[in-house]
Amino acid sequence: MQGHDRVLSVEKTTENKFLNMYDLQYENKVGGHGVYHIASRAMSMEELKMKTRENKPDGVIIYSLYGEKKDHVVLVRQYRFSIDDFVYEFPAGLVDKGEDPAQAGIREMKEETGLDFVPLKADEMFCKPLFSSIGMTDESVATVYGCSTGQVSREGLEDNEEIEVVLADRTEVRRILKEEKLSINCAYLLMHFLHHTEEDPFYFLHNE
């Protein structure tokens, strides 16, 4: 009976502030050996999720509705170096030490958009941290849901953040899904937004 792939050793190969690279020496299920490269938010080997066996969220994404009828969704159109282009996403960011995801969502929404965010309590199955791109990183993010009010502002943006806030209605969401570049988690949740009702815009969070 064959075994399974396993990590033999880990070496950290960079010293960066927000993201680092690690080389994993591994043995595969038939006895072959190789090196697998991953990126991680972990600042040390001991903090890697493969070491802690804990899935604490590195960041949050924020699904927020806007307007009296909650008929707009808050998006950001952001420049990303990885593709040298703009992409539509939800407001998002890293969870600071001592924060829970809801607190991080409130802070990040204010910083990126100027809006005031009120989180909605949801069942753990909908907001637990999930892996963002498991083939290349152990990063996980939690989703927070809620509504925002106030006026859009750019005052909280950092110098290297190039962000346009978009309050999109269903017509604009359809156009974005058809024509624009999006993050995959944003695309999936926008598909839900297209079918929400005024009576229950968070219908998809029911645990039934």
Give a structural overview:
- It is an enzyme of class 3 (hydrolase).
- GO terms for molecular function: hydrolase activity.
- Residues 55-190 form the Nudix hydrolase domain.
- It comes from Hominiventricola aquisgranensis.
- Its cofactor is Mg(2+).
- With 208 residues, the chain is of the alpha+beta class.
- The protein has two domains: 6-52, no CATH class; 59-202, Nucleoside Triphosphate Pyrophosphohydrolase (Alpha-Beta Complex).
- The chain is 20% helix and 34% strand.
- The strands form two sheets. Strands 4, 5, 6, 7, 8, 9, 10 and 11 form an eight-stranded mixed beta sheet that branches. The chain has a three-stranded antiparallel beta sheet with strand order 1-2-3, with no helix packed on it.
- A hairpin with a 5-residue loop joins strand 2 (20-27) and strand 3.
- The longest helix has 13 residues, at 101-113.
- It is globular.
- The chain starts with 5 loop residues before the first strand and ends in a 15-residue tail after the last helix.
What are its keywords?
208 residues, alpha+beta, Nucleoside Triphosphate Pyrophosphohydrolase, 3-stranded antiparallel beta sheet, 20% helix, globular
- CATH architecture of the largest domain, by name, is Alpha-Beta Complex
Helix/sheet category: alpha+beta
Give the overall shape, derived from the CA principal axes: globular
* Total number of beta strands: 11
Q: Catalogue the unreliable spans.
A: none
Provide the CATH superfamily of the largest domain: Nucleoside Triphosphate Pyrophosphohydrolase
Kindly report how far apart the N and C termini lie.
41 Å
Strand content: 25-35%
